[in-house]
What does this fold into?
Amino acid sequence: MNVRTDAAPRYPGLWQKILSLIFIAPLAMVLAYAATGANNYIFLLVVASILFLAVLTDFHVSLVMILVSSFFLGWAIWFFQLPPQLINLSYVLIIMMLLREFFFTANFTSVRTPINYLLLCLIAVGALSFLNGNVMPYPAVKSMLRHVGYLLFFVLLIMARLSEKTMRRLVWTVIIVAFIQIPASIMQYGWYTLVAPKEFGTRADLSGGILGVSVGGHNAVMMAMTFCLMVGFMLVNRKRWYLGLAGLALMIPIYLSSARAGVLMFAGAALFMLVIAPRERHAGLIKRLYAAMMVLAIIIGLALSGLGGESFSNLFDFNYMYEYSVKRADSGMGRLEAFGVVKTTLDSPLLKLIGRGPGAATPTSIVKNKSSLMAEDPTLFKGMTTYALVTLELGYLGLALFLLIFLRMLFASRKLLKVIDDPFWEAIALGFGGMVFVYIISSLYVSSWIHYAETFAFWAVAAALYRVGQLKGIFRQ
It folds into this structure.
């Protein structure tokens, strides 16, 4: 196998450059059209050029392109009114980079990761459900890519054989992006309060930061994940209590965007990180319980104080929360309503097992998907939780495979945590356990497994941990 380092050239031979021109350039055009569905040829050429540049340039530059498209492209599309199909750019960038690394780095050999077999099984379930259903090929492939795109990104990062230094920078970048949302949300809230006043609900919905479309529910997942990493740093470096305050500062976008579930998610993440995740060497159980109660009091107290807006006054009104979760809103089905919809839509044993096929619950930008459930009831299926979407399209088997993938990564991080002697990676491995907890729990509320920002953050940190484990001989290469 051709094992390269970060400093190694990407295309050392002339034949590789020739191959890239005659094969990758047309492929970039095809993928650009498939992703955007653009009839504007200038726009199509711009997207194809971006894809082609990603293949010809240094891997680090390509990684930055994927990062920017994952974190900020959704908000840029909304704010600057760019073509909405551009949101798929991160997926096609991942595909192009996978092809390049497979051809020119891995030399057509497979790469060892802890999710290889589960990922292949998930793709197989998608293929079986497609064959059993009546969804057209294009929307099926496009929807399946939404499910597995960032799992392939994880494989890409491992295949690239990056250095520990690069992986450390990647993790810090994820953390910095999360903290950028604090001033961004404050500026947005001030703008919509003083300069362009709006009613409270609208003002809050537009004040969640610059990830996605400033939706507080999605950004709350990113904030809670980063909070887990900060608690990991605090537990490993117990004298640096200010790290805990920095973690609590991540709640500012949640308060300003009125993300009620985000408050409860932070509270759950704090309990998990301070009580369940740590090992005995990090702190005694009594001290951790005391710290957990203190953090919970701060989180809940700030929410109920009214600093975050009137919506938090109903935080513990369970009747209100239940009614809110079952009613249908402009954004789609209610959170609890989704479970009933899944039960009635999958009306046979085979459908329950493998679902109605990828694309059954999602639209497409080129081919009108007449078999889509959204075509039958656009209001209901406009917004769906991850559990509902995955189960409808891939069945309970697909949902189980997803959960196994997350548990597999959790076990890998715990294995690393037992033997790692680097304080930085010990803190990240500790915090990653909380990220898994947040990722699984949040999917009851939002479509976080396929939303770009939090999905990139999760799999970037996962890849960094696994790659460092490989470099230190903990995991096999």
Notes: The CA atoms of residues 384 and 447 lie 6 Å apart. Confidence is low (pLDDT under 50) at residues 1-12.
